[in-house]
Design a protein that fits this description.
Radius of gyration: 19 Å
CATH superfamily of the largest domain: NAD(P)-binding Rossmann-like Domain
Number of domains: 2
Shape: globular
Strand content: 15-25%
Largest sheet: 6 strands, parallel
CATH class of the largest domain: Alpha Beta
Oligomer: single chain
Number of helices: 10
Mean pLDDT: 96
Helix content: 40-55%
Low-confidence stretches: none
């Protein structure tokens, strides 16, 4: 359990979209070890509405982002990745700890700049890959990572965000429309496979229907894995499964559902990293590795 700091960590929120509204703001406002120090948005009215809902000040505009940083010890981001990255580097340069959304960026250069800025000022960082922090899945990942003898794994994350009839508010996201499942849900799958099977030493990518991406991976443990990612699967075909097979048989990732609770656990982890000075395994350097692998897959698909 996290030991709460004597003074709550002031965490500002950058972004006002559905993810900020549904997950990050509620978790930050209710966390006993944190204070929602403010909300910044590109549109003043959206920032004001979200901030007012949680009793926090609102900020907007170029001057407003600096004012939010000044009022905060850490900054949480709910922005498209390539908007997030330069602002995160800017926040780190001012000594603010980072609570980033996945992926850190969709370019290796962008992710490296965040790593560089965080390293120069020594701030704590954490990349929110949901499965690493959801109660049941986090325990499961740790349990499987402690075992040896894994032979192979199969991961399928088939979302129906862009399927006909979808009513998801996340479907309007331009960056998801452009980058698809590879970049949106790919980080989640890799955040499970890498801790258990080891880093990826070889990657092969191929296209499937409706923006689906297939990956074949080889890991440092010697195990292999196959991954299928999509945001455009038919609704009846949608679902998420990750299965490991090895000397002890086969095990499957448990189900999870509480996004707010998962983000609350990520806040716990950031507080621990700030308090102890010990980097979290899912810090910005891990986020950079995810970006490197996804960029490699994207380059293969474009070739």
């Amino acid at each position: 359990m996290t030991t709460l700091p004597a003074t709550p960590l002031r965490i500002g929120l950058v972004g006002t979209g559905p993810w900020a509204r549904n997950t990050q703001a509620p978790a930050l406002a209710a966390h006993p070890g944190a204070v929602l120090s403010g909300v910044w948005g590109r549109r003043p009215e959206a920032a004001r509405e979200l901030a007012d809902a949680h009793g926090a000040p609102s900020y907007s505009g170029e001057a407003g982002i600096d004012e939010l940083f000044a009022a905060s010890d850490a900054v949480a981001f709910a922005l498209p990745p390539d908007v997030q990255a330069p602002l995160a580097a800017r926040a780190a340069a001012t000594g603010r700890h980072l609570l980033l959304d996945k992926p850190v960026a969709t370019s290796v250069a962008g992710a490296r700049e965040v790593v560089r800025a965080a390293g120069q000022t020594g701030v704590a960082s954490l990349v929110f890959c949901t499965l690493r922090f959801a109660a049941d899945t986090a325990v499961w990942i740790d349990e499987q990572a402690a075992l040896e003898g894994w032979f192979t794994a199969r991961a399928e994350w088939l979302g129906s965000l862009f399927a006909p009839g979808s009513t998801s508010e996340y479907a309007a996201s331009p960056w998801r429309q452009e980058k698809g499942g590879l970049w949106d849900v790919g980080p989640h799958v890799l955040s499970v496979l890498i801790p258990v099977l080891g880093d990826v030493t070889r990657l092969t990518a191929a296209r499937g229907p409706s923006g689906t991406t297939h990956l074949v991976l080889r890991h440092t443990s010697g195990a292999s894995s196959t991954v299928t990612l999509s945001l455009g699967a038919p609704a009846a075909a949608s679902g998420t499964e990750i299965e490991l097979r090895g000397e002890r048989g086969r095990v499957a990732l448990p189900r999870w559902s509480d996004a707010v609770g998962s983000f609350r656990a990520a806040i716990d982890a950031l507080i621990d990293a700030v308090r102890t000075g010990q980097p979290h395994p899912c810090d910005v350097r891990f986020g950079l590795r995810l970006t490197e692998l996804l960029a490699e897959a994207e380059a293969q698909l474009a070739g």
